[in-house]
Amino acid sequence: MRIQPLAPIVAWTGSLVLDLLSKTGVGPDILARGAYWLLFAGIVMAVLAAMGRRTDPMGVLAPAPAASVTVLPVVHQALNTGALAIFAVGALIRLADGLESVSPAALALSLLGLLVLGISGRLAGRDTAAAGGPAVGGPIDRLTLRGRPR
Question: Which of 5, 102, 105, 110 is the most exposed place for a label (fewest CB within 10 A)?
């Protein structure tokens, strides 16, 4: 079974939404607990997705012409790993503080982790465009399914 790399991002975004809702005062304890479990699920899914890769995650071991080698995949992978570490530290802070409420530090780490993932995603889009794939914000007609006529 292959975990889609988007799944952890969805879990972490949902965790942030529950964190923000818990600050409104409507059921803060249950929302904070739900946010923690979504955060934890995102961490587990990210680790499984990274372990399940069948190819070199950074694409640096595959032979490629010197002109096509860029540093963007390495930076992308480093940012993803950094974001995973940020979310893990946030989960540990939540465990130490208790799951009934969200501390400002844990909330800030969730925001920082999603910011790092956004930057990483933007770099991945630039690398895809540089490799001849669909550009970020490019024309939709370039995004066709394999084997299907245009």
Answer: 105
